[in-house]
Amino acid sequence: MTYLCISASDSSNQNLIQHFKECIKFIHECRLHGGGCLIHCLAGVSRSTTILVAYLMTVTNFGWEECLTATKAVRSYVSPNFGFQEQLQEYEVTLLKEYRAWIQQEYGKNPLSDQEDLQCLLSQQEEKANQQQGGLRETNWINAPSQTSSQPHTTYDSSCSHSRWMNR
């Protein structure tokens, strides 16, 4: 088992961009060699999510908001702090194109189905949102109180079979 540990506080002032390339390289190599890769921080909400979103942005053609939405499809309570969201926006505008070229040059064409997996998760999230909005409209129409329930784990349609890597 190989570890990569970066020292970073969960503060909006923390510069995570400085760690993106090292983390992206580590995650990608783990995945290319068939190993699992656990990305974590204390609560699994802000720092680890920011690193994961930066990785997903680099290996797909999606921007930070779409990658965050896809991540929320798997782990609903992720929420990078405002400073980390700004850094993801900055990364998208300043370094992303360069990092995508670097990873392509360094490792060649990505043999993983990341683009398709994220598209599937985004489609599921959109469908779920549409169903919830339809339910809200129906609830409002009959003037009944809305009911919500929280589920700690999200279930997935088997049509996203490639999203298994996100559930390891």
Automatic annotation (TrEMBL):
Reaction(s) this enzyme catalyzes, per UniProt: O-phospho-L-seryl-[protein] + H2O = L-seryl-[protein] + phosphate; O-phospho-L-tyrosyl-[protein] + H2O = L-tyrosyl-[protein] + phosphate; O-phospho-L-threonyl-[protein] + H2O = L-threonyl-[protein] + phosphate
GO biological process: signal transduction
Domain Tyrosine specific protein phosphatases: start-end pairs: 18-92
Location of the region described as Disordered in the Swiss-Prot/TrEMBL record: 132-168
GO MF annotation list: protein serine/threonine phosphatase activity; protein tyrosine phosphatase activity
Domain of life: Eukaryota
Keywords: Hydrolase, Protein phosphatase
Tyrosine-protein phosphatase domain mapped to chain residues: 1-97
UniProt xrefs under Pfam families: DSPc
Annotated GO CC locations: cytosol
InterPro entries cross-referenced by the UniProt entry: Dual-sp_phosphatase_cat-dom, Prot-tyrosine_phosphatase-like, Tyr_Pase_AS, Tyr_Pase_dom, TYR_PHOSPHATASE_DUAL_dom
Family recorded in the similarity comment: Belongs to the protein-tyrosine phosphatase family. Non-receptor class dual specificity subfamily.
Protein name (database record): Specificity phosphatase 22-A-like
Source species: Podarcis lilfordi (Lilford's wall lizard)
